[in-house]
């Protein structure tokens, strides 16, 4: 495999182009002050102004470049990611799989904390690639990059980096990749931990709920009803990804608001705004990488591929699995682990869909606790 070191170096012309595009934005009419129709215009203008005039991309570029990176060629597709080898002897290899609509940037705080823990606890050799079409795993060079193919590519990258056996963590789409690796990579996967939040039990893919009490079923239906209007992004991208890709690739404000809306809807509900749930510069760094990497169409295409690929129903594996839940919702374990069969379960009342950005300290503790509970040899 062609795998080589990588350093982010966005040309000055592209940074200038972003600033100029933001300044020339044509804004829609401001007809609402709430989020029920999407990102409110005043808040979008606030974020765009911060991105264009108050955000230091070069500082963030330097911060990201302090972490060793690689780019690999897998079946003609560039796959970029972080690769932090711990200085600790006996560190466990760990693959981090991000979700939608993120990238390797999701783990920019978590990865160093796992590779070189300040308390001297268990450490990891951390690999955090971006899914093909996300981050700098661009451009997307062809169709067919579903979860199965992505999992196989990540497994090949781990082996090429020298890790014959490794653990895996994932959230959202990354959780699906983690499960796929357990099915297809076999004994190379030591164990798998996934993160979840209340949104995971309010989708069409919720596990069976026949065991719930009438009161719990009523609560579950209320959760699904509350999210019913949240799936417009999914319906568009799983049917006509190219239609939305034009806007995400050409308009920085569309890319900005497309991601900011999900941080508003999916992060800790006790936080009023996205920048209350995660650091605003971290959010803008994630958006910037999506913009500079032209990842809008890649994200849309992944959801299309996932929706049009066969599911692995009926397949099983014996890899130890754990789950960590962020957000206060008693039904999560009742639905996702009703019989207590998972090797590990942890819950946190705060946090949401992006725990590596929202609650990195708690998530790092869970990863370490989980791996301490399963045999590594």
Automatic annotation (TrEMBL):
KW ATP-binding (keyword) present: no
Keywords, sorted A to Z: Aromatic hydrocarbons catabolism, Hydrolase
Record-given protein name: Alpha/beta fold hydrolase
Any one biological process term the GO annotation gives: epoxide metabolic process
Xref: InterPro entries: AB_hydrolase_fold (IPR029058), Epox_hydrolase-like (IPR000639), Epoxide_hydro_N (IPR010497), Epoxide_hydrolase (IPR016292)
Organism: Cellulomonas humilata
Active site per the UniProt annotation: 172, 304, 353
UniProt KW ATP-binding keyword: no
